[in-house]
Amino acid sequence: MIEEIREFNKSFVKDEKYQSYITSKYPDKKLAILTCMDTRLTELLPAALGLKNGDVKLIKNAGGVISNPFGSVVRSLLIAVYELGVETILVIGHTDCGVQHMDSRAMIESMKQRGVSQEAIDMIHYCGIDFEKWLSGFDDVNTSVQETVELLKHHPLIPEDVQIGGFVMDSTTGELLEVE
Ligand SMILES: [Zn+2]
């Protein structure tokens, strides 16, 4: 796979296919979106929202969640707001998310089957990390989006003038449903 990608990349650059993507690091729509890494959203989400290269700071992870209020997602949002001029943050969950109902115990079992030792897992617990909570999914995508929006609205480092909205996207049609 890596070789395949490298080959494609060589001709992409050689044929100057990048020309139509040239833009700056400042998002034209002063917008940041936190969403899920789901493959169905890769092209669907920007297309369904009318976004093109240069419009938005897109932050993605499994579930589009903030697992630590002072972790990498919030850090990225702070940089987006203070350094790159973002004025609006959207949190966008989606239907049929893989993180929904994810069972951390099952994943820990898979780790063991793939050669991770019980000793390593015990060590992580010993270091005070709530492994189960960190790896577990959410039950309801609406609630998850709602909680993330609340966290951002009350985050001490995010200024009051930043507009924050929460939505769930239909993973097939791209329809955006507002989360109350
Ligand atoms: Zn998802």
Short précis:
Its cofactor is Zn(2+). This protein is α/β, with parallel strands linked by helices and 180 residues long. The chain has helices spanning 2-14, 41-49, 72-82, 104-113, 118-126, 131-135, 141-153; strands spanning 31-36, 56-61, 88-94, 163-169, 176-178.
By DSSP (H or I, 4+ residues per run), the number of helices equals 7
Tally the structural domains. Answer: 2
Order of helices and strands: HEHEHEHHHHEE
Strand order within the widest beta sheet: 2-1-3-4-5
Query: Which molecules are bound besides the chains?
Result: zinc ion
Low-confidence stretches are none
CATH architecture descriptor text of the largest domain: 3-Layer(aba) Sandwich
N- to C-terminal distance: 42 Å
What does this structure look like?
By secondary structure, the protein is an alpha/beta fold. It has 2 domains: 26-100 and 140-180, Beta-carbonic Anhydrase, Chain A (3-Layer(aba) Sandwich), CATH 3.40.1050.10; 103-136, no CATH class. Helices cover 39% and strands 16% of the residues. The chain has 7 helices and 5 strands, in the order αβαβαβααααββ. It has helices at residues 2-14, 41-49, 72-82, 104-113, 118-126, 131-135, 141-153; strands at 31-36, 56-61, 88-94, 163-169, 176-178. The radius of gyration is 19 Å and the shape is globular. The model has no long low-confidence stretch (mean pLDDT 94). Bound molecules: zinc ion. The site of zinc ion has 7 residues, from loops. Zinc ion (ZN) binds next to loops.
